[in-house]
Structure formats: structure tokens, C-alpha cells
Amino acid sequence: MLISKKMSFICDFCGIVGDHSPYLCATCNLVVHKNCISLPRNIRITQHCHVICFSYSFQQNQVEDCMCKICQTEVDTSYGRYCCSASGCDYIAHAHCATNKSIWDGTIIKEGYDEKHGPSNLITDVIEQISIEEIMVASKIKHSYHHHNLRLTFSGEIKDDSQCDGCMRPISTPFYSCEQCKFFLHKNCAELSKEMGHPFHKHALTLTSSRTLGDYSSCNACSHWYQGFSYRCYRRGCSLNFDIRCMLMLNTLNHPSHDHSLFLEHNRQRDCSACSGTMEPWSVAYRCMKRCDYTLDVACATLPLTAWYKYDKHPLTLTYSDESEPSQLYCDLCEKKRQPNSWFYYCADCDNSLHLNCALGDLPYMKLGNKIKGTRHRHPLTVVKNIWNCPPCEECRELCNGQALECKESGCNFTIHWDCCWY
């Protein structure tokens, strides 16, 4: 029964205080918000792999961990909440968290829905298989985003500049490779599902290649320009896309820069604790579970923990603070000053310190040798890595010490930084 008057109450479905016109069940002594009266029974959110069901009759010992998996605060089980419908799964979330517009797309799951487990929409065809310790493994496959067959490699020599054509990270075993051209895929990248959900976005995302979107694209989570595979939303009016590195991120994160675990939070509007950058109102970020306001944006959370410097034989380690004298806070590559509270890459053996961008370059997720179209230059430009002979950029005249774009046409020696080629 609708009570049409102003009154203070606590909604039995969401546990939040209300102050006007609740619905009342006198028999059960339930008081419910107008909005909560229509909470759906079964929904699916991309933050969890199973259907979750609304319940307000909690059974003791049914769920051991009563922390909301979305906001990481306690769930008062005397009120309504969403719980996982799968046997043995203890996922639980506040009703208002699970139905938040940034988490749930509004789709209601009908009763009797047949829950499916695991990826059933792989994008590869298996051509040959081998048995390893009684487990059948695909030794030869045909991938939808490459025109030749790919063969599995478990060990062997890998060239330093070899990159996975899926995630653009340096190649490591096991991986699939093409015997006819320089195409590589990590085994995990080759086994990605054609469609999957991710906690960054409320809609299901579809696997695609940068070749179908153009030569390159920008990730909406970390803002890096990239080539290779990505997951894209094709819902009407929504064109978000996330690169593979960001798609591998989870709800929670243990990062060496902080003592406590971090959890994913939507619509986070505060500065990143690593780069001090202000996040957009619609962005996601990782926040400390202990509520100490430590926050990482996705770009900083996905930074590689090690990097290489051409004049150092050791890997440089991602470092989070520097107690050196102010006169020592300089980058050994660009020779410009570093900020004491900004992250940097450091080699303790050789005492080399580099800015993040100086260590990684402008195009860390572009494949060397790939051509880029659509720049101001009359010819397509090739992604190159300048190691020793560093030509100056045609626009800013500074040396191209890392990745750059170079013209390979005969008689044309044009070289330009990525950021400069659009001005």
C-alpha cells in the first residue's frame, strides 16, 4: 500500500533512509522506497560472471563474506541485497550498488534462465592438437584476425623486439606464430572470447582488431594509443573500447605502490595519487579498500613494473618515491627535472633515473614496423624505434630517442614524434 505522506523510514529492500511516500506491507511489516518496489528478481552485471538474484530473506551461514563485492563495504543482511544464483558462489552486493546505472544496463533476466559457464564463443578454429600430460592442446589454429595458420611454440629464442599482435606486449612463451609472416599471439590472447563482460562497462563487449577500426585507436580506460586487439561496445549510442591490457584488469588490484588492496570504483572524481591527474566524472579508478583515499587511475595502474633503457644493461624498475637531494632529481635521458613525488623508472645498479614517458616512449603499444595513415605527411609513416642514430623530429627538432614515425619512401627522410605529427 502506498503511503502518500512525508515520513522518515529505512527501506527494507535497500537499507537506505527515505523521507517520503513509501510502500507498506502491514502483514509483513515491510517498508519500501517507490523505486525499490520494482527491483527485478534476476539481473546480470558485467562485474560478475553469473546471474545475481534479489533476496530479502537471509539464511544464516549462507554467505560467509558479507562485504559488498562492488563497493567493498559491509552488507547488512537484515535488508535486501543481490546474491549469486550459482551453487558454491558467495558473491553479494548491495541492492543500490548492483542496480547503479554505471554497473547495470537495465536488462532483466527471466525466470528459468539457463546459466552458461565459461567462454562458449572462441574466435579460433583448431586445426591440429597434441597431448601434453593427458591434456589436449591446440598446436595449430586458424584465428579470425589473421589470414594464415598459427603454430604453438612452448620454448625457443625470442627476438627482443617481438611483440604480441593482440596485446602489444613483448612476446613470451607459450605463443602462436605465423610461419609466413611476423605475426605473434600469446596463447592467452589467442584464446580470448569473441564477446565478454568487464567491470569497466555495463554492456557486453565484442573482440575486434585495430585493423577493422583503422590503423590505431585510443583506449577509453587508460587513454593510450594502441594497435592490436580490443574489446568494443557496439550498443547504439555507445562506442567505448578497451585495449587487452585494460581488459585483463579485475575488480580488485594489489599494487606494489600501496600496502592495501584496491577496488574498482565507478564515477571517481578525484586526483590520481600517482600522477596527480584529475579523472573525468565518468571514469573508473582503483581506490583503497581501507578508505585512506589512495587512488590510481587505470593508466597508472597498468604501467609495466619494469622497462628498458638503451644505455643500461639492467631492467629499470617502476619506483614510487625519491628521497634524493633536489639537485639529483633529473632524468638521465632527456636531462630535464623530475618531480620528487612522481613515479619514475630506476636502475639501482647504474643509478639511472627516467621519466615514465622517457622510459616507455610515446608509442609503447604500437607495433614496430606497422604503417600509420592519415597524418599530415603525404606518405604512410612507419612505427620505428631509434636506438643509436637518433634523427631530430621534423616539427619540434628534438631527438627521437624512443618510438617515432618515419617515412620509408625512397628519398624521403621524414621523421616525427607521435604528438607532433598532428599539429
TrEMBL record:
Keywords: Metal-binding, Repeat, Zinc, Zinc-finger. It holds the Pfam family C1_2. Residues 328-396 form the PHD-type domain. PROSITE patterns: ZF_DAG_PE_2, ZF_PHD_2. Residues 142-197 form the Phorbol-ester/DAG-type domain. Signal peptide: none annotated. The keyword Protein transport does not apply. One of its GO terms (molecular function) is zinc ion binding. This is Phorbol-ester/DAG-type domain-containing protein. It comes from the Eukaryota.
